[in-house]
Amino acid sequence: MVEIVTGAISTLLPKLGEVLRKEYQLHKTVRGEIMFLMAELERMQAAILEISESDEPNKLVKLWVRDVRELSYDIEDTIDSFMVHFDKHRSFRGFIDRSLNLLTKFKIRHKIGANIRDIKSHIKEVSELRDKYKVDGVTVARPVGHQTVDSLRLQSALYKNVSELVGTKKKTDDLVSRLMEMHDDVESKRNLKVVSIVGFGGLGKTTLASVVYHKLKLEFDCGAFVSISLHPNMVGVFKNMLRQLDEKTYLNINGETWEEVQLIDELRKFLQNKRYIVVIDDIWSKSVWKTIKYVLVDNQLGSRIITTTRAVDVAEQVGGAYKLEPLSPDDSIKLFNQIIFHSEDKCHPYHLSEVSQKILKKCGGIPLAIITIASMLASKKGNQHEYWYKVYHSMGSGLEDSPDLRNMRRILSISYYDLPPHLKTCLLYLSSYPEDYLSTRETLIWKWVGEGFVETKQGSSFYQVGGEYIYELMNKGMIQPACDIVNDYPEYYRVHDMVLDLITSLSNEEHFLTRLDGHPSLSLPKKIRRLSIQTNEEEYVKQLATISLCHLRSLTVCGQGLSSLLPTLPSMCPFLRVLDFSGCDKVENQHCKDICKLFHLRYLRLYGTSISELPKEIANLQFLQVLDISITNIKELPPTFIQLKQLVYLHFPNMMRLPDGLGSLNRLQEIPNVITIDSPTMLHDLGCLSKLRRLTIYFDKWDESYEKPFIQCLSNLVSLELLEVDGTLGSTCGSLSPGPQRLQSIDMSFCTLTAFPGWMSSLCSLSSLHLILLTLGEDELQVLGSIPHLNDLYISISVNKAIHDKNKRLVIGKGCPFLCLTQFSLASSSMYVGFAQGAMQKVRDLSLYFGVSETMGQFGDFDFGLENLSSLEHVDVWMRCFGSKTGEADDAEIAIKRSLQLNPNNPTMELEKV
């Protein structure tokens, strides 16, 4: 497969189409030449996509692909320059002539495109004819893919004493226990059991599966261990399985010309009356598992299936997911010592202790990495200290090129080659960050958007599509969550050091991105397209002055030393599209005018810099899509700011005043800040942002003049998905037309509503609602209960004015259906709500907050009808005991427990007395 697929072609083709629009008033001949350009580029793109789906292309093809990619960048630079200077009536003829000359140069290489299909077919033929290999006595199919490596054969070489491998015994025992766990009932003993080992490449999934398989195999009638690989030949896989299940009967099956369907039928018939154990190693897709599942019949004889996969979604579909974790620090040290000193307990010499700890930290508990690096170190004689530090510094840089490291990268790279082209590009881009760098979800997505990597989809925002990219990369184990999940998503992500080493190596090979990180660098490419500066050392910063950056498209600075070069950036980097100076506190106000001369900027991040104002020249950045000026000292934006018509993301310092006329930025999709509303006009401006996905607003004051503008604002925000409102808020009555029908979450739990907003009933996608109300009555319950997809409801009641009859609770029954509600929280001074038979039939989690004294004084009991919630699983109760009489709190606890004992679900409870 080719590492980088189409360069700028995917973004260039729409631009060529845009240039053909009438307002450019191009000559008929020029229009024809542009159409020719588009046709040629489309053919090139199609040819490269063909190559990307094939196995390893020859060097000539790879060079051709690189030339096409560079050509696409050059053409895009030229056409962007034309579009920027269109108002100056710059001649377009030169662009066409230069581009056609470039195309002519590559015509001979382009002829290779006609032979691509033959090349692909030939490589597939060769792949299918490869021999099978024996691993620990188990026959497996050789994986097919870019720079194919028999990972099992390599593991066999590395894991010679697999039964003695550190950390294997406990994991083996865990898996055996899970697979062979038996209950007293006969049905449990007969059930088919499945365990899917899932984890990052190099963790030893195949090794573990092999150990467990051989340990249990004799307890079954028959067994097989087959490897699927990235591009499986299912006919070959099924033949291999049959031969292992019964070698005598199917010894010569490879010579048979059976179709896949025939083989499935034969396997099902063979396994129908057998108690079998089968290992399916290295499953890459759900569709492949679906095919294999047809074969593995559940014959109620207590058979067992073990699978291994790197993809979380595959493991979840297979079932019985067993997440294989990295080795602990102690086990990592033991394995390291075992390889180097042939003893787990031997300590390193004192002078190697510190560097060995640093090396192990970078290995991150991956056995394959530990074994590979330790084997390299064990083979080195002489000055160990110097060599060990050299290896340590090279890890993660992608520069060390020993055979062992190349082999390790090949194993880890299989996950990379399974990615579609756009995700390969997104992943390689992460090599622009240093080791252990924590990236936020927002930063990753919007950086990719600025680079043009995120492909827009009908009905989806950039953020949604970018979020899908992150999910896929995380699912494949290429990026990892670095914190707990908040609001369904991890806030921070990191790249494992071994993956960083891989993608940095690939990036270097393809000249995708150049890093200046303090490591001795390879010779720099002639055309640097993307540059990441990760050092403060002056010698590397000064090196920039000697490098041609005229083709630079992206600059990420993680150090502090580049601010001195800022005045020269516009002349050095005329086509710069992405500029990230986050955290560089030496970037100050005087530098901003220089930045505003970078007319091609799509992405500008000045997060954490020392700037306190943006100049009026910010309006020059007419292509700017993403602007992050958060954590700066900026208090307001210049009036010219509203001329940035392409802006889709804006992140500014909290409490900064937004300029009048913000509504003219009608492409804005994301504003992650709290916006202070100080006039009805601001609501009108916000209402013009019809593509806005989320809105968080704070009302400093509220009067009748805000009510209609607020409702009108919401009516216009048709793309809104999340709404948070804080501050002073009065009545928000009225109806929404058409309204935000995609709105999924509303949080008004930091402001008190004087009346229930009836317009919420028209929100068909609303799933989460948090409110503080003055009152709650039957009418409000009817409206809430009718919201079709409401899943999570939190209500806090300030005043119980709705209760006219002192001794009568407000009862929730079948008349308020709450069809999808699973979580319900209610807080009030007295618990005046009760549940009738058939109420809230899907509620699983219930939270109640109330005062003991108030509830007892108003109703004389604590009978809430909890026994009537048929799906209830857990209850959290907070009782405020202030002012209550002796024994009242205990009576309340007893009454609630009795009610739960009567509930057929036997729910659990956590109770706290405050």
From TrEMBL:
Instruction: List, for all copies, the residue spans of the domain called NB-ARC.
Output: 173-345
Which BP terms in the Gene Ontology apply to this protein? defense response to bacterium; defense response to other organism; innate immune response-activating signaling pathway; plant-type hypersensitive response
State the SUPFAM superfamilies in the record. L domain-like (SSF52058), P-loop containing nucleoside triphosphate hydrolases (SSF52540)
Disease resistance R13L4/SHOC-2-like LRR domain ranges (all copies): 551-909
Disease resistance N-terminal domain residues are: 8-95
Extract the InterPro entries matched here: Apaf_helical, Disease_R_plants, LRR_dom_sf, LRR_R13L4/SHOC2-like, NB-ARC, P-loop_NTPase, RX-like_CC, Rx_N
Does the record bear Repeat in its keywords? yes
**Pfam families for the chain:** LRR_14, NB-ARC, Rx_N, WHD_DRP
Superkingdom of source: Eukaryota
Q: Which GO terms describe its molecular function?
A: ADP binding
Disease resistance protein winged helix domain residues: 433-503
Keywords on record: Coiled coil, Leucine-rich repeat, Nucleotide-binding, Plant defense, Repeat
- Presence of keyword Signal: no
Provide the transmembrane region boundaries. none
Q: Which family does it belong to?
A: Belongs to the disease resistance NB-LRR family.
Output this protein's name.
Os11g0550500 protein
